[in-house]
Amino acid sequence: MAVRIIGIDPGLRHTGWGVVIADGSRLIHVDHGVISSDPVQAMADRLLALNRGLVAVIERLRPEEAAVEETFVSRDALASLKLGHARGAALLALAGAGLRCGEYAPNRVKKSVVGRGHADKRQIAAMVSILLAIRAPSPADAADALAVAITHAHHRAAPALAPS
Prior knowledge:
Order of helices and strands: EEEHEHEHHHE
Distance between the termini: 22 Å
Number of domains: 1
Strand content: 15-25%
Shape: globular
CATH class: Alpha Beta
Number of helices: 5
Number of strands: 6
Radius of gyration: 14 Å
Helix content: 40-55%
Strand order of the largest sheet: 3-2-1-4-5-6
CATH topology: Nucleotidyltransferase, domain 5
CATH architecture: 2-Layer Sandwich
Largest sheet: 6 strands, mixed
Structural class: alpha/beta
């Protein structure tokens, strides 16, 4: 049975999103894009812009399931915290829509799409392009979001899927 999946690559400056239909082993590209926040605005206003943008995408494209990339924890604690805020805004939009949400580590997404856990952004975009039979998605945040959706399509029955 075909299922429409939204993948989200959260970021405070740019949050990528991509929607695919998984019909058995077949993947069909629906749409993709990026929601940006204004870096001169207050944090709360930026998060609200990301949340509202995702709510609008969800209302327009009507996904049935969702997947979000987990936060990559780096040595820069402030950057990780900001990414966590953006991820929270995305999760809130998904929960508000009643969507089940899978959460995937960045290395798992890369391994699922490219075949290795340390692939770079060009490799991810190239494989997304091949798997979905589309031109390489741009910007990279949208390609990464489509990769998250593809990962979910491959692993959606696994325990990573939890009710929102």
